[in-house]
Amino acid sequence: MAETSGAKFLSQAEFARARGVSRKTVTGWKQKGLLVLDGEGRIEVEATEWNLDQRPTTYRGGVTHRPVRAKDGNNASHAEAAPKPAPKPAPEPQPRPAPLDGDGGQEDVFDPDDPNLPTAIAVRRKENWLGLHRKQIVERDGSKLVDRPAAEAAFFEEGRALRDAWLAWPARVAIEMADELKIEPRQLTPVLTAYVKKHLTELGEPPAGEFG
């Protein structure tokens, strides 16, 4: 930058050359009131440089040409801007106290069956239930679980087939057994049927409608 301290007054063009800036920049300084002019419109160099040097070191992405100066009478001495103090650390948030009831000062007991749960807890319970439901669907589709109505129906059909087979057994084997025992088949069939029914009763038939 050219030295401007030798001249007390300069035109705007001369001042722009001395500062190493464009005329447009000097015009901008004038519009901002940074230029000190005499009665003839010339720039008072010392006073104007003082105004320019009071700007921050950096501003809007730009940099001032000279460091900030402290004014002492008519003499200008250079002084570095004082560093900004470090920001104070933000206070640590204090934990909220746990909600207390009105009796013994204990935390409120969570009741999952309460229909008047707070919104946050109700939403969390809903999401947990949906997650468990989806897990059951996945495990069922992966053969880890079975459909209960289908399993009960299959069990009932299997039990009924076994019962019918037992009830048909006396008539099927009575003739062969009677021939070995040398008795009338008509006498043996009712006896076998009665004992088979007694056996089935002891095994226990499912109550009506349990699997239906």
Automatic annotation (TrEMBL):
Start and end residues of each stretch annotated as Disordered: 56-117
Pro residues biased stretches: 84-98
Biased composition (Acidic residues): 104-114
Descriptive protein name: Uncharacterized protein
